[in-house]
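Q: My collaborator sent me two sequences in one message, no labels, and asked for predicted structures for both. Can we handle them in order? The first one she listed is below.
A: Yes, handling them in the order given. First sequence, followed by its structure tokens:
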Amino acid sequence: MRDESQELEELVSRALDRRKFILRAAGVAAGLVLPGAAFTRVAGAANSKTIAFAQPDTSASVYPLLLKGAKQEAAKRGYQLLQSHANHQLDAQVNELNTWIAQGIGGVIVLPLDNNAMHPLIKKAHAANVKFLDYSDKALPGTDGWVIFNNLQGAALVGADAGRWINRTLGGKAKVALLTHEIQQTGKDRIHGGIAALLKVAPKAKVVARHEGVLAADCLAVTQSLLQAHPDLNVILCIADDGALGAEKAFMQTHPSAARQKQMYIGGWDGSIPAMQAVVKNSVIRSTGALDLVGIGGASVRATANAIEGHGSTRINYPYVLVSQSAAGKKTGRKLLAKYGA
């Protein structure tokens, strides 16, 4: 028979093992790796059924529709959905992604505010067995998939419509301003493709200003300055509908006459509800390259879930349709608005 000292030694050893197990589990739950701990996220663990939709422009007019689609797909696939709170701030986005990776979520799909800042995060995610997908662009190397838009196709739709308007309304001559986001591939494709299509149709048009601007508040201030420098500006192409709404507000603050309003064309991309409503009501926002925003939100979760589960498509490309003030363009806009319940 064993003596009491042996039994006591075994009890102490089991207690110490139990304490190490609890501490190690707590470290995993907090996203930490304890000294000497071998950290492996077990497939099927609670966090692996979590997807982060890192679209940082949550104040943008398109966001509610994107989120609606993302939530619907997450519920359908049995995933918890995390939202971004980066508010278009790069430091906040990087911190947010680091936190999610440390928590060992299943995957993240991100609209990057700076592609270069994403490179180390992709490596960190893969080291932690977290899937990392690109939203809007496919410019990031080594991602597990992407949901993108056929930007050059959409750019051509809006640019050509603006060119036709210039020829029809202004006799082919116009002063054009571009509000873009050059650090992102979508910004380059939409604006560069849009102005190329415009100049092909209306070659006498002239670009007089180019400025960074995405969201309404930024583009409001930028357009105020542009109109002071170029009071006879005729066309403003905005990388996003949200910026178009800001540009429209700035223009209307100048109290333009009816004749002056007829000489202004503002175009954008995305197909937000406010922008499409403005188009069909014959405002100075005259076109938008519209996307199926609810569908894109759902596709973002679907592609990420497919990457996590290892089957199904992880690369999705959405086309644009033109919502404009032509009869066909208005019909398209009304159909989308009805689909969105607006």
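Q: And the one she listed second?
A: Here it is, processed independently of the first:
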Amino acid sequence: MRIISSVVEMQEYVLAAREHGRSIAFVPTMGFLHQGHMSLLNAGRQNCDLLVLSIFVNPIQFGQGEDFDSYPRDLSRDAKLAETTGVDIIFAPTAEQMYPQGYATTIHIDKLTENLCGATRPSHFDGVTTVVTKLFNIVQPQLAYFGMKDFQQLAVIQQMVRDLNMPIDIVGMPIVREADGLAMSSRNNYLTPELRQQGLALVDSIRSVIAQAKNGERTAAELIEIVRQRITQEVDAKIDYIQICHDQTLQDMTTIDEHAVLLLAVRFGATRLIDNHYLLKAL
């Protein structure tokens, strides 16, 4: 396994690999790997000749007052974990490599970025789509793997790839959960034991509304209220959003069907957790 920090070196490596007919699977991350990331790497390892992992905490997707400076970073730890999955290359560029002096280009996706996280983090998805486009251009993968925990991000990336005719298959992978049901996230490391226990309100409320939907409830507002009542029982919970959206348009639904996804973003103390689930599928 090699660790490459230079954009030019990374490009030279993958161009040579493709000239020799080798296929490339790519998993872009911000590091501090957990089992959710490992599931993406394992899938990529099974489907391509070369497996590339990027680790880059992208400054332009963080808003003012967000956790860019405190976001967990440990390249040595991540490298040891990556090696166990058969990663061939870790691409770990600096911000100066990705955004050199004079950089002036942004990728923006309309509509899908306006609801949910985009409503409260207005510059976030411009940062995501810009960095992912750059990473795709550098790594030149045929397959790229993203977790469905970031449901809106996955939808936005899929739209971008279609719109810009990028020759890349985007593979969405299921959420990986802790034994207690909490969706795995690098930000879980911020939680105190007490806040982590409160965070289980997310998965509790998902289970409750899935049960109500199974019993015939189809009114989105009623299901959202069940979630709201459960989460507000936690003293340190501050709701960012609770919404039920169509899985393709990400627009709010009034009556649920097989396309309905419950999407949650809640702060427990200073830590913002997200989760989601289709309402007519078992958790």
